[in-house]
Amino acid sequence: MNDWRSVMAAGCAAMLLAVAAQAGDWPQFRGPQGNGVATGKGFPTTWGSEENIKWKVPLPSPANSSPIVSGGRVFLTGAADDGKKRSLYCFDRTDGKQRWVRTVEFAKVMPKHTTNTHCASTPASDGKRVVVWHDSAGLYCYDLSGKELWSRDLGEFKHAYGSGSSPVIYQDRVVLHCGPGKREFLAAIDLENGKTLWETEEPQDQKRAGQPELGSWSTPVIAKVGGEDQVICAMPTRVNGYDPQNGEIIWWCGGLSGTSAGTSFDVVSSSPLVANGLCFAMADLRGPAIGFKLGGQGDITESNRLWQIDKRNPNSVGTGIFLDKYVYRPNSKPGTIQCLEAETGEVLWTDRATRRDHWGSMVLAGGNLYAINQRGTTVVFKPNPKEFEEVARSDLGESTNATPAFSDGQVFIRTDEHLYCIGK
Description:
Elements: H1 2-21, E1 53-58, E2 68-70, E3 73-80, E4 85-92, E5 98-105, E6 124-125, E7 129-133, E8 139-143, E9 148-152, E10 168-170, E11 173-178, E12 185-190, E13 196-201, E14 215-216, E15 221-225, E16 228-234, E17 238-242, E18 249-254, E19 267-268, E20 273-275, E21 278-282, E22 289-293, E23 298-299, H2 301-304, E24 305-309, E25 321-323, E26 326-330, E27 337-341, E28 347-351, E29 363-365, E30 368-372, E31 377-382, E32 389-395, E33 405-407, E34 410-414, E35 418-422
Parallel strand pairs: 14-19, 18-23
Antiparallel strand pairs: 1-35, 2-3, 3-4, 4-5, 6-7, 7-8, 8-9, 10-11, 11-12, 12-13, 15-16, 16-17, 17-18, 20-21, 21-22, 22-24, 25-26, 26-27, 27-28, 29-30, 30-31, 31-32, 33-34, 34-35
């Protein structure tokens, strides 16, 4: 018994050390919790193309995917030859030197929107492995030295706009929103061996299934609902809550279909925002926004939905921040920043802070909100529901559609030309 307790104590200590070692990492899209919130303090608020730059390295191609930081490394993806070559790059976070690159080949040229790339999915890491989804070219897992551990062909995902959702690591599995295309589904893949643990297909309304724009690029989030972990993902017309152990759809809330907003699109790009027992979700292409209470089973639209704004909203590609009782969100077309009251959906203020469209998601770091626009201008402002309160703004002079990564007082920004490490 004493030996067993000693082993358990040692194991727990090792786990705590591992967690502590990775506490400052930004290991997946929108950070460690997938909510855009950075841990720690001391993040810079001002920089320029040469000011406050620790290092920058040139990149071979533009991409809409974002960098992650894990285990002393920075990972990001790239594509070449019309997407026939898909790559995962690994850089040393200390000096920006490239440690390795792993490239897979895919014979077909897949369609995409002119503003998308063939590398829009952000990698994810648990500190020992890194997983990257090259959509139709497959899901790949490597160790941190670049050794391939496994790969999976999950099918072909053909859509006029391309792909864009990112993998999320939860416990012993990779949770992946696969699509859009003829099939759109959520899957859990064993992180150890790449085997499918479960797969749940999203049914499509047959009246709307023929529209070429139908689809979701939303990255799922893991959140507590009634004390239990759930996977929450925004699909083309509704938000679903899944059991992460078996993929069962526990509940769903409707209201994202573009028909209610007078558009012909059922399109979702951003991820749901979850806090204080509430969920906020927004369709793209001027579709609806909804707010609802979490909990319940089956169709909770009538019982739990608090509001729906079905007028022509701003386009929503990047994801915002849910803080206290308010949602702060970046918009595209028009390029604005807004603050909403989460329980009512009332827009409290709108500001044309950078006067350019936002595709990157917002980040909360060191008590400030960071929003980067497509021209590479980052505006830093206070989370103030009464008014837009600017702290600083910085311009890199290079275009970007990516979301910055925040780790241990440094900011990592991917532009179409460079990867930047900003800070000390």
